[in-house]
Specification:
Elements: E1 4-7, H1 10-19, E2 30-33, E3 40-43, E4 52-57, E5 60-65, E6 74-77, E7 82-84, E8 89-94, E9 97-102, E10 111-116, E11 119-124, E12 129-134, E13 137-142
Antiparallel strand pairs: 1-2, 3-6, 4-5, 6-7, 8-9, 10-11, 12-13
Length: 152
């Protein structure tokens, strides 16, 4: 079955997030709908301040100009992991900081995706740090409410 990509709306946000077991306070740039399975939603996270997208490719985990390729698509799974569509690796915020690693189900790979009035916040369940793209590059940092930590 051919997959369709639709722009995210508040109604779609709630339905898509409930389908994957996330709180309805989350959002993302796009949600890919397809086979009717309810175990994942596909999202592209674009930084509000830098306009770059969260990417995991051969160049590693980074913020990169948005291009719509599958390196920038993330499965938001029922168990609250963010799995890259291209590499299959999960966003991890362990002792070594923010990186993409093989998915292992540990708390360092669990994320709270929360919508605020000015964008989505990606906060790690274990470390409580947020994904940030600033002049210092992509990293996890203490959540401070600034636009470098907002994604849409």
């Amino acid at each position: 079955m051919r997959k369709r990509t639709l722009p995210l709306t508040p109604v779609l946000t709630s339905a898509a997030l409930l389908a994957v077991g996330l709180p309805t306070t989350a959002t993302a740039h796009d949600v890919e709908l397809g086979s009717g399975t309810s175990d994942t939603a596909i999202s592209i996270f674009r930084n509000r301040a830098t306009k770059r997208c969260l990417e995991d490719s051969g160049a590693g985990l980074r913020a990169h100009p948005c291009n719509g390729l599958n390196f920038q698509q993330w499965q938001v799974t029922v168990d609250r992991t963010l799995r890259n569509v291209n590499t299959g690796r999960c966003l991890d915020d362990g002792d070594a900081g923010l990186r993409a690693l093989p998915c292992d189900g540990l708390d360092s790979q669990k994320w709270n995706v929360t919508r605020r009035s000015d964008g989505v916040v990606l906060a790690n369940h274990q470390t409580k740090r947020c994904v940030e793209d600033s002049g210092l590059g992509l990293r996890s940092y203490a959540c401070d409410g600034l636009s470098f930590q907002r994604w849409y």
